[in-house]
Amino acid sequence: MTAITIAGNLTADPELRFTPQGKPCASLQVAVNKRVKQPDGAWGDGPTSYYRCTAWGQLAEHVAESLTKGTRVIVQGRLEIREYETRDGQRRVAAEIQVDDVGPSLRFATAQAERAPRQGAGWPAQTPPVTPRASQAGDPWSPPRQSAQDPWGQQAGADDAPPF
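The structure corresponding to this sequence follows.
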């Protein structure tokens, strides 16, 4: 298994499918251009490499909902080589990235992240919404406010002096 990270543009909208067992699977293809220095000293696009990528589970659903053709993305995953036989009996080899993480590249764009509810593998189907403090209203990643019912969230009588 070879870890790989690529940055490139989606050549088409991600395609969301489901296995017979109901597991989501998203297929995407990423075009990666290498920047090369031209003989005149200017930089330009070199040859393009195309990578087939597959995302599974909730990640697959998020990819299909969030990304579209032309979006510049960063994909991190595992490069897998597989052999297969065509209908006419020829043996072929294909390289594919099994996606562990993917997101829009912020090099030439901006994005607004939205936290999705956690599901599966020990997580409840729905998580209660977090009510942010007034100063956190625009920051969905900040921790929730400590409530008076949280004994660990308050330090009665403590000061900021180190304990040693």
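The first helix runs from residue 57 to 66.
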